């Protein structure tokens, strides 16, 4: 379709409003237009598309099947146009960086450190959203992502940040209560489990050459954040990433139950599309993240 044949945003907005209300008068009131103006916009759109979008049945206005399909796409287009317009207005003359990150890492590690990033890179305006699953950089408006898993992502460049380094921990109170000193002592503990890693405790016990019968038993949670909260209220012991528990251990609130972690080939990585890897904002984020990771591991 030639660009000159595309409907205007005003026409699409009039169609969306009329379709939402299924009433041209109400649409006109919302858009501060006359009913005749809304009707004319819809007629022009139907003529341009060569299909009927509305059916007039017994003084009622209904969407045709073609109208329903078109409405779904029009709503998506208007929503995305609104989002990118707001982003452009919010960023001003700064460079915009759209970043996705796995939720627990974002909340517990990344966000508390962001003031340092903004202090060092005042020309970057960061938009941060949480994402657990990989996505297609070509299909979604992200410049980079902090991803957990294997160091591979089709069509992307991966920079390693952390190895997973899962550690067995509990609260200091829970350790004293059950007198937990060795891996074998965990046979009398409540083991907190994660839905997506049902064999984590079994794998760790095999690594430390222990065989308690309760490796698969205990309440299950769907995020590390929930499990950490459960640990902090003395609900049981858990296998959690070192970055998540290091602060609690340093403050004496949490106790590491063994110096041996759970071996894994997985970890946390900064990923970005090949086309964006040298963008100034992405390069600034990469350098800052590597410095923060080095400082946190040294501490």
From TrEMBL:
Instruction: Give the source's domain of life in one word.
Output: Bacteria
- One GO MF term attached to the UniProt entry: DNA-binding transcription factor activity
One short Pfam name that applies is LysR_substrate
Q: Name one GO biological process term.
A: DNA-templated transcription
Outline the extent of the HTH lysR-type domain.
7-64
InterPro entries assigned: LysR-type_TF_proteobact-type, LysR_HTH_N, LysR_subst-bd, WH-like_DNA-bd_sf, WH_DNA-bd_sf
Chloroplast in keyword set: no
Family note: Belongs to the LysR transcriptional regulatory family.
Name listed for the protein in its UniProt record = LysR family transcriptional regulator
């Amino acid at each position: 379709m030639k660009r000159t044949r595309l409907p205007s945003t005003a026409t699409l907005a009039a169609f969306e409003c009329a379709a939402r209300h299924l009433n041209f008068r109400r649409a006109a009131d919302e858009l501060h237009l006359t009913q005749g103006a809304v009707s004319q916009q819809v007629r022009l759109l139907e003529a341009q598309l060569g299909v009927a979008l509305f059916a007039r049945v017994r003084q009622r206005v209904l969407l045709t099947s073609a109208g329903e399909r078109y409405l779904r796409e029009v709503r998506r287009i208007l929503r995305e146009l609104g989002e990118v317009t707001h982003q452009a207005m919010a960023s001003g003359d700064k460079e915009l960086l759209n970043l996705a990150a796995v939720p627990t890492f974002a909340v517990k590690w990344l966000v508390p450190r962001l003031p340092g990033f903004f202090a060092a890179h005042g020309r970057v305006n960061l938009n941060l959203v949480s994402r657990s699953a990989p996505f297609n950089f070509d299909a979604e408006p992200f410049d980079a992502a902090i991803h957990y898993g294997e160091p591979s992502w089709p069509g992307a460049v991966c920079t390693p940040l952390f190895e997973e380094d899962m550690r067995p921990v509990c609260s200091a109170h829970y350790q004293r209560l059950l007198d937990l000193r060795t891996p074998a002592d965990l046979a009398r503990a409540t083991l907190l489990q994660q839905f997506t890693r049902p064999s984590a405790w079994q794998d760790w016990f095999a690594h430390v050459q222990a065989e308690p019968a309760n490796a698969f038993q205990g309440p299950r949670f769907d995020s590390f954040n929930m499990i950490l909260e459960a640990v902090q209220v003395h609900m049981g012991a858990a296998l959690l990433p070192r970055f998540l528990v290091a602060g609690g251990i340093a403050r004496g609130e949490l106790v590491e139950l063994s110096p041996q972690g759970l071996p894994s080939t997985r970890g946390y990585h900064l990923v970005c599309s090949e086309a964006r890897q040298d963008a100034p904002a992405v390069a600034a984020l990469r350098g800052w993240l590597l410095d923060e990771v080095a400082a946190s591991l040294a501490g």
